[in-house]
């Protein structure tokens, strides 16, 4: 990689509005990955194929940063610890999602089965830190013991499911349009889950039937009738 980066620094893109036809950008093009012993011949034959391929070269400070990272072994970067504000917000949400009443358990299951694939973040804190809503066998305050099933409504295999927020380790694409987590979960419940506050809804625990019933047949029937279909489950500030 260091050689490919250096090749681009030595041979930047020609000052043209359009790339020449020598740059093959097709997905099914023939790929090349020369060995270190072959790199001298490769660079002589393809001087404009340095990294980033088909794009302008890196700025000098970016180039030096990458070379230093490669010289140090190209290891993963250290993630910044979560701020106290974010940790407090997580605690507030997990306390809210794991209320002991059947109504709270029903609401939390409904939220999870709708949002299990989403990457959630707090807009007013740090938009670069994302979380997943997961099922856990352990309550808030301790390590997450994640319950992994093929479908979000499969039987978790435990008597009590806890809904936890776990930090996403991968990079999130900005065009994903991910849902926001409201700063105040109690305010969110007043706005979007009035059945929890009024005492309507669940009268008994719901099972995990086989098949593909999921939340829409096994849970939605117990929601307040004045909750419109398709209403956003989490408040999305403007």
What does this structure look like?
The protein is mainly α. Helix content is 31%, strand content 5%. The chain has a two-stranded antiparallel sheet with strand order 1-2. It has eight helices and two strands, in the order H-H-H-H-H-E-E-H-H-H. Residues 211-238 have low confidence and may be disordered. The relative contact order is 0.12. The chain folds into two domains: 2-71, no CATH class; 84-222, no CATH class.
Which tags fit this structure?
238 residues, mainly alpha, 2 domains, two-stranded antiparallel sheet, 8 helices, 2 strands
Number of domains: 2
Low-confidence stretches: 211-238
Strand order of the largest sheet: 1-2
Helix content: 25-40%
Helix run count = 8
Mean pLDDT: 78
Rounded to an integer, what's the Rg over CA atoms? Answer: 25 Å
Inertia-based shape: elongated
- Strand fraction equals 5-15%
Q: Class by helix and strand content? A: mainly alpha
Number of strands: 2
Span of the ends, CA to CA: 43 Å
Order of helices and strands: HHHHHEEHHH
State the major sheet: 2 strands, antiparallel
């Amino acid at each position: 990689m260091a050689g490919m980066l250096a090749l681009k620094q030595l041979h930047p893109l020609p000052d043209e509005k359009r790339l020449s036809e020598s740059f093959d950008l097709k997905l099914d093009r023939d790929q090349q990955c020369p060995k270190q012993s072959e790199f001298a011949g490769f660079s002589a034959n393809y001087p404009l194929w340095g990294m980033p391929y088909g794009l302008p070269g890196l700025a000098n400070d970016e180039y030096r940063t990458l070379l230093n990272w490669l010289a140090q072994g190209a290891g993963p970067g250290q993630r910044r610890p979560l701020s106290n504000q974010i940790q407090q917000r997580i605690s507030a949400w997990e306390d809210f999602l794991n209320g002991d009443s059947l109504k709270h358990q029903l609401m939390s299951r409904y939220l999870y089965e709708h949002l299990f694939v989403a990457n959630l973040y707090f807009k007013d804190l740090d938009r670069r830190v994302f979380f997943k809503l997961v099922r856990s066998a352990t309550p808030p305050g301790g390590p997450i013991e994640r319950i992994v099933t093929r479908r979000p409504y499969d039987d978790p295999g435990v008597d009590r499911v806890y809904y936890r927020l776990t930090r996403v380790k991968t990079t999130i694409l900005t065009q994903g349009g991910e849902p926001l987590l409201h700063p105040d979960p109690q305010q969110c419940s007043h706005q979007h889950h009035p059945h929890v506050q009024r005492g309507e809804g669940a009268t008994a625990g719901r099972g995990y039937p086989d098949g593909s019933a999921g939340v829409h047949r096994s849970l939605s029937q117990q929601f307040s009738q004045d909750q419109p279909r398709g209403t956003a489950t989490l408040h999305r500030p403007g």
